[in-house]
Structures are given as structure tokens and as C-alpha cells.
Write a structure and sequence with these properties.
The complex is a heterodimer of chains A (160) and B (126). Chain A is built from four helices and seven strands; from the N terminus they run βααββββββαα. Chain A is an alpha+beta fold and 160 residues long. The longest helix of chain A has 11 residues. Chain B is 71% helix and 5% strand. In chain B, α1 packs antiparallel against α4. The longest helix of chain B is centred in the last third of the chain and has 43 residues. Classes of the chains: A alpha+beta (160), B mainly alpha (126).
Chain lengths: 160, 126
């Protein structure tokens, strides 16, 4: 798709890296699962890597810091970020990066759309660069920043 | 940062720009000179050269030495690393959401039983 593109910077041609899930629950419950340490500890770590430290200040401008512990009992590298935008039961935008200096910063946008008692959670990641973060802060929005990982997936497939 | 992570970071930064991604897609089809890239991208030669420098530093392209025009070629190896990383990344998040699905189910049931207790306080006795 990208290879065919004649105007390389056309934003509408770009897609982000997106994962959608439909939950058989109202949006307030799915949203709630993102908002408190006791919830995060129950699901955020993949199987075998539970989140054992979840410090979070869930408000716009607030920070979070998570640590996962592996099956060998060793703690993994701490990671965290900042909540950029919170719309109760609708949307959360946050940055995420490992604490190690120089680690790329990603921006995650999670939206919750409830219909007939079911909630579609759409999770997007915007590409990790300082520029993207700067634009986000300046514009207060991610829409239109054409730098998704989905595109990279496409590009890599086309090229390889 | 490990050299692997540093390299990957360099590749990702290079790929974060839509023009550079398009340049890569173009040279993936066939090698091209700077002049051949100037026209379709509607950029000046120095602007194209600047993008090429970033791609070259990330190891994504190489420049031929045989001609004055130094044609630009794709070097695919770093992209294999990106592909692996992206695959792992997607799987990782899908797994998270699998767990979220069962946890949300649990939260929902807890809420239901709480509501029942509020509506029918007698039933919770004993």
C-alpha cells in the first residue's frame, strides 16, 4: 500500500498500529480496569510476568511506574509514563517508556465505545519519537500524526 | 542501553518519518539516484540528502560508489529486526488483552453480586 503511494506524506493514507477488542461489559467497567493499581496488577502483566509494582497517579499530568516480575522471581526493567488525557469511560492517552535513558517513548491511546452493553476497546500506539511527543503536547491531540506502527508492519512486508 | 536496543531505536527513529518510509518503499522497488528521488517527492535535493543520511546511519540504505550519482539501495537486514520486534510487541499486547477480558468478566460478576446484595439485603445473611 505504501509502495503505491504517490504522495508520501498524505496522512489519510497512513494507519496506526491498532488492536481492538470487544468486551461483554459496559465501558465504565473496562475503563475502570485501567485506573487503579489493584486492577492493573490483575491483568497488565502477560501470563508469567505479573505486574508487582504499580504506582499510579491517575489524573491528567499524573505519572505511573510499573514493574513486572518474571517466572524466575526477578524484577524486570521498570517502565512508566504520564497520563496525557483522560475522558472518564471514553478515552485514556498515556506515554510509556522504559526508565533506561534513551528508551523510545510511545503514546498509547485507548478508547472505549459502548453499544448494547458491549464495549469496543480500541488501542492505538503512535510511534516513539521525541517529535511525536512534542507535537502531541503542542496540538493536544494525536489524530493526524501519521506515524503508526501498523504502517511499519505494512512497509516491512512490502519491502522484505 | 544495549547496542541492539540502540540500533533498533535508530532504525525506528529513521522510520518514524513518512517521507523516509516512502523513500524506502521507492528504493525497495529499484535503486535510485538522488535526482530520481527529488521529483516524485517534491523536495529539494538537500532535503532528500538529509533524509538519506538518516536512513544510511540507521543502516537501512547504502549508497553505491561506482558512479558519480551514487545510487541509493535498500539494505533489508534491519527491517527483519523491526519485523520481529513488531510481531513480539503485538503478541504481547494481545496477551494482555486476553487477561483483561477475563478480569473484566470477574469485575462484572463482582458488581452484579454487590447489586444483588443491595437490592435484597436479606439474601446475604447467613
Amino acid at each position: 500500500m505504501i509502495a503505491e503511494s504517490k504522495t508520501p506524506s498524505a496522512p489519510e493514507a497512513d494507519r496506526e498500529f491498532v488492536i481492538t477488542r470487544v468486551f461483554n461489559a459496559p465501558a465504565r467497567i473496562v475503563f475502570e480496569a485501567w485506573t487503579k493499581p489493584e486492577h492493573i496488577k490483575r491483568w497488565f502483566g502477560p501470563v508469567g510476568y505479573p505486574v508487582t509494582t504499580a504506582d499510579m497517579d491517575f489524573r491528567v499530568g499524573g505519572k505511573f511506574r510499573f514493574v513486572m516480575t518474571g517466572p524466575d522471581g526477578k524484577e524486570g526493567p521498570p517502565f512508566g509514563g504520564e497520563y496525557l488525557e483522560i475522558v472518564p469511560d471514553r478515552k485514556i492517552v498515556l506515554t510509556d517508556a522504559f526508565e533506561e535513558p534513551g528508551s523510545p517513548v510511545m503514546i498509547f491511546t485507548v478508547t472505549f465505545d459502548e453499544k448494547d452493553g458491549k464495549t469496543t476497546q480500541t488501542w492505538r500506539v503512535v510511534f516513539p519519537t521525541a517529535d511525536v511527543l512534542k507535537s502531541y503536547r503542542e496540538m493536544g491531540m494525536v489524530e493526524g500524526i501519521n506515524s503508526g506502527l501498523d504502517q511499519l508492519e505494512d512497509l516491512v512486508k512490502v519491502i522484505r | 542501553m544495549s547496542s541492539h536496543a540502540a540500533r533498533l531505536n535508530l532504525v525506528f527513529s529513521a522510520l518514524a518519518d513518512p517521507t523516509r518510509r516512502a523513500i524506502l518503499a521507492r528504493v525497495a522497488r529499484s535503486e535510485a539516484t538522488v535526482n530520481e528521488l527529488v521529483e516524485p517527492f517534491r523536495l529539494t535535493q538537500p532535503a532528500i540528502s538529509k533524509h538519506l543520511k538518516v536512513l544510511e546511519t540507521a543502516g537501512l540504505i547504502s549508497r553505491g560508489r561506482e558512479a558519480q550519482t551514487r545510487p541509493v539501495r535498500l539494505t533489508a537486514a534491519p527491517l527483519a529486526e523491526v519485523e520481529t520486534w513488531l510481531g513480539d510487541f503485538r503478541r504481547f499486547w494481545e496477551q494482555r488483552f486476553d487477561r483483561l477480558e477475563s478480569y473484566v468478566e470477574e469485575m462484572k460478576n463482582k458488581e452484579k453480586s454487590r447489586d444483588r446484595r443491595i437490592k435484597n439485603p436479606k439474601r446475604t445473611r447467613g
